Known about the structure:
By secondary structure, this protein is an alpha/beta fold. The chain contains twelve helices and eight strands. Strand 3 (58-62), helix 3 (79-84) and strand 4 form a beta-alpha-beta unit.
Amino acid sequence: MRRKVIAGNWKMYKNRDEAISFIYEVSSQVPSKDQVETVICAPAVFLRDLVKREGEDLRIGAQNMYFEDQGAYTGEISADMLTSYGVEYVVLGHSERRGLFFETDELINKKTKQAIKKGITPIVCCGESLETREAGTTEAFVSKQIIAAYEGISKEEALKTIVAYEPIWAIGTGVTATSEQANDTIKMVRQTLASLYDQDAASQIRILYGGSVKPANVEELLAMSDIDGALIGGASLDPQSFITLAKAGLKS
Length: 252
Ligand code: 13P
């Protein structure tokens, strides 16, 4: 049984006061962590303030990190910096990082390895563009992203990761993949993991869906056989909306 994960990705939204008051409002309202793993991935400057207030059931994650231990990497944040604040999750390889900040599969692989080594749970993102979907090459494209992200990672290490399938055409557009589309691609990601490791690993690794998830569609998505949770952008910004999304994790 894979425990559901409901993760918010705030991207570059909110100021400090808004971030803190969100955590105060939400942290006692989400389901127990034994039932649903609930995470907010916040901008790096807020991490310290939020981790202090996170509570047992609402955990705080980062949206990015660098793969080196330390060094002359202006503007970057290391895994040790994150763990020194108690950060337990990090989103890696989000399509916005790939597209706008030129992150490659190779870089994402290095970051994933570093997160695992340092005891941070990476939420490894994959997903195709509309062009790729229309060309009918989604499976090949997404499975190549997964193979690259997990290069040189053992089964034991892979079990410490979470995958997020986020079709780019569904992110921030209001267009959600249908639950069948999302489930089919996620099944394929699971098969790719089975081919890299084995069926046992593939059946344990949580794979989330992301892209215009909101209270109105979350239950249908989470009811699908292979969708183990959601990575949510816009609808994670409002406290009540996020509480509803987190509670939906209890129903499936
Ligand atoms: P939206 O939920 O705003 O479509 O964003 C999805 C996403 O990119 C989460 O990482």
